[in-house]
Amino acid sequence: MQSEKQSMTDPYRSLCRLLTTREGPLFIAMSGGIDSLTLMTVAARVRVDPTIAMHAVSAAVPVEATERCRKLANQHGWQLQEIDALEFEDTNYVNNPLNRCYYCKSSLFNAITACQDASGQATIATGTNTDDLGDFRPGLKAAAEYKVWQPYVDAGVNKADIRFIAREEGLGELSALPAAPCLSSRVETGISINANDLRLIHQVEKLITGITEPGDIRCRIFKQGVTVQLPSDNALFTNASLQKDALSQVEAICSASGKLFTGFEKYSKGSAFIKPGQVQRAGV
Prior knowledge:
Layout: H1 10-21, E1 26-29, H2 34-46, E2 51-56, H3 63-76, E3 79-83, H4 91-94, H5 100-113, E4 123-125, H6 139-145, H7 151-155, H8 159-168, H9 195-211, E5 218-222, E6 225-230, H10 240-256, E7 261-266
Parallel strand pairs: 1-2, 1-4, 2-3, 6-7
Antiparallel strand pairs: 5-6
Helix pairs in contact: 2-8, 5-6, 9-10
């Protein structure tokens, strides 16, 4: 086990201490995003007991995230177990209610639990951080029901801390990865989740990222059509030629899937979630 780095912050030290002292096997739900990748990196470095990365392969998870998990596991010698959480077999998930994330996480934690040994002593951990606690996250209820551990929360680690820790742990450019919720989060509440729509979402987001630059880019499916949301300073809002090129390509992708592209707009966090009593988007 390596010595603590001189540049460690208090939350970083606290995280290392918590991970070191947690006894028994640890199953880390690793989505391929920077939060869970960083948690796995630290845990694998400081722990003596088995630490296993659990990655759910799904239509809702971009293939790049899965490839990222495989690459880092190979580089660092992690034990990586890929599973199918079977969320698409749950009609509650497919119907996409407001609390869809609850059913998704329940499926995930149930699948991970099934991988535990007969003694049932393994701990399941996630990359939930303190900033997440202020968001609308029905999945936290599922985590509580399955007694999932949230080491970042216990250590007082927020998103900025995670990026700092990622850099200190040698994750390099991965420390700047934009937040990447599952692809199903782009589908408006009440619209059924299906693999074809998720492939369209991924294709469009990958296209736009290639044309402009990485960031909070979301292809959202609303009842009135497909909308692409981007940061307010994205070049597509100021470069007419670039916007025209992107527009024609996205329109072609949507048309091939029988969907209407409604245009580009500024990024709005969580805008696909429609809560009871909330005013819906114009045209819905």
